[in-house]
Structure prediction request, 235 residues.
Amino acid sequence: MTDENMLIQCSQCGEVNRLPVIHCKKCGAKLDFDAAERRMQSSVVRTWREQLGTGVRLAVAFLLLLALALLIWPGKLGRVTGEEMDARRGRMKKELLLDALNRGVPASQELEEGEVNAFLADLLRRQPKPEGSWSPVIKDVAVNFRAGRAVLFIAVRRGPFTFTGHFFARPEGGQLKVVGARAGHLPLPGVLGQGYALISSGVFRQMKDESRIMRNLDGVQVNAGSLSVLVAGRE
Prediction:
């Protein structure tokens, strides 16, 4: 037992007495050992709560740092890239779908993964120059089609930083519905992923024709390596 644990303070005059004593060496009052024990127990409880609070704060700080690390850790997407001829076919199919929308007639097309990715790569090369050093610039965009699920990948540079996102979508009600996302390597399930997709959609503002087609889908089926779409011909 340390010297500190063998001290007791007089409740009358405040003098600190070293045990073993019964009366205060200064004023002679009887020392209240019960009160001293209660204060000691209260001090132990406060110390435990303080330690618990410190542990909780450290855990929260660790989780925030981990989330930040996952957020800025760039992701990648495996895809079928396609060639220049694939880009032409993808552009032609897009024009046929737009023509159907303009004429108000239904139309369907099956878009191969290589065609879509080659077409998107061509769009990247044609994107306008950024207005400022911190304006978003799309560095990579691609899709991956698996049976029943489509994945859209995008890498956006803002200043010296590059942020990536994966958006996972499934057919639902004739549309492709986002069911989750990943920001960098940070998983965002459900509504979190949908919110992230909504925030990120502004990056595609120059892809007006493609957005128009997606808004007017009347049927969609995701196959391994391809996407079958139907536009109803009405807007």
